Amino acid sequence: MTGAKRKKKSMLWSKMHTPQCEDIIQWCRRRLPILDWAPHYNLKENLLPDTVSGIMLAVQQVTQGLAFAVLSSVHPVFGLYGSLFPAIIYAIFGMGRHVATGTFALTSLISANAVERIVPQNMQNLTTQSNTSVLGLSDFEMQRIRVAAAVSFLGGVIQVAMFVLQLGSATFVVTEPVISAMTTGAATHVVTSQVKYLLGMKMPYISGPLGFFYIYAYVFENIKSVRLEALLLSLLSIVVLVLVKELNEQFKRKIKVVLPVDLVLIIAASFACYCTNMENTYGLEVVGHIPQGIPSPRAPPMNILSAVITEAFGVALVGYVASLALAQGSAKKFKYSIDDNQELLAHGLSNIVSSFFFCIPSAAAMGRTAGLYSTGAKTQVACLISCIFILIVIYAIGPLLYWLPMCVLASIIVVGLKGMLIQFRDLKKYWNVHKIDWGIWVSTYVFTICFAANVGLLFGVVCTIAVVIGRFPRTMTVSIKNMKEMEFKVKTEMDSETLQQVKIISINNPLVFLNAKKFYTDLMNIIQKENACNQPLDDISKCEQNTLLNSLSNGNCNEETSQSCPNEKCSLILDCSGFTFFDYSGVSMLVEVYMDCKGRSVDVLLAHCTASLIKAMTYYGNLDSEKPIFFESVSAAISHIHSNKASYKLLFDNLDLPTMPLL
Questions:
Q1: What is the mean pLDDT of residues 517-525?
Q2: Where is the signal peptide (predicted)?
Q3: CATH number, domain at 493?
């Protein structure tokens, strides 16, 4: 008997733990998204726009790669490698269709701290000047890139460890105001780091707390050393870049292909510098020798990992947060979903694998992602096509960039950061929507300026959590009771053939960044639960029950249902009487629910709204001014629906948002 039991247990154990073929396929599709979208790629519809976008992206990748490599205190050629390998790895493992991974200003600035600390500039005279090492570069340059590669490797390991621990979903504590302030402050740091090239000055590397102010103090103390030629060329480059890009933006609907002004400027400036010998005549600093080819892979130095752990954490957190924000924005814009944890794996592997090919830390950049938007990219194929052109530059065109002036390259960096710098305009929005978020934005920006991007990010998260913890105890007594869901079904027969379903949901807790996503999830769960509990008896009832769920779900609408009930209308009433306070993320989620429902012909009405909520929602989103949205009470909203002469079925659910843990 005992042997039979053991045999039975062993059989059950083998069935439970033996992976099936379907399980392996599903796991591969989940962890290798390219296996999911590549077989369904539409060559006829997507190849042309992806090719055009890939060419334009390659121009951005090359220029930003050269510039951000210099920003990272390494030789410019390593920026070309950093624009190639991370893009390939992310296309395989990443889920963002419009996310262009490569060199990134913020991660380059962070890694530069480690490079300048471990291999300072004064060591250049102590190292051998022979060009017998990799790519014919000096030992000093190779020591510097090994430090940057070590930062990239350890940063990627941290991101993969976060993936294993499933910490991707923990990024909800990083709110939009914190990300906006951190990236704006970091962009200000990047612009400051380019001042020496814009002015043609020789300046020692300055970093650390208040380093931002020390740089400008040094500039004003040595203002006489500014090279007028470099300053004029920088101003001319900035004016041309801004003017042409604004014209491209204005006439992008009338012209099929925008002018690659970055590429044109690089060619023109390099040719002019070569013809006039500006390097020797005017003393302008140029990019210099760009070696051809890709070196053999080599492991980053493991003996210095402990020395770069601070910068590695900064690269892992800042790079991931900025990249995830862009991925979520593109997913929201083009109606697809991404997995936060899978993005951790994709960026972690991008940094780890690329570190073996002498790459600086990588992440997604706002300018490149916006470029993919404007050029009409459809899939990740655009990034892969850009890699082909980057390879052409590495193997053929790279040496021709020798004469490119550094002031022109710095101008391209500054103009490329325009998208981050104009986030100052968000201050007005935050002030009108939620003044506490305005204060968090300002304080996070100040901390980023005074210290660093990772310090500002940490400060912003701590402040956000502290504000929520400080406000929640005052509202716990309001939402402490757990009310059961109540249902009221009212059926009225009218002469109209229109069938209308109304669902009323009561919000009994504050709506802030901690529970904004959960609010949407719970709202959908209540709808699904109601539909599951009330099975229809005929086709009309079935159509009635499934309409609101199909309209609000993230997936595609059911075509059969839509066709079978063409005159069907739906309404959703949100009772905000228990909505004690909110923040910017809560308002954003409410507006998102309203806009999604509006796009699916579902009317959303809000009852018992405070004046501050009405003002915030009106300012934040482009709400429909023709139809009334806000009502004094639920009965007033129902009367409005009833006045449209449609029969309705009224369901009242009490939605208790989850009480937030005191972190």
A1: 74
A2: none
A3: 3.30.750.24
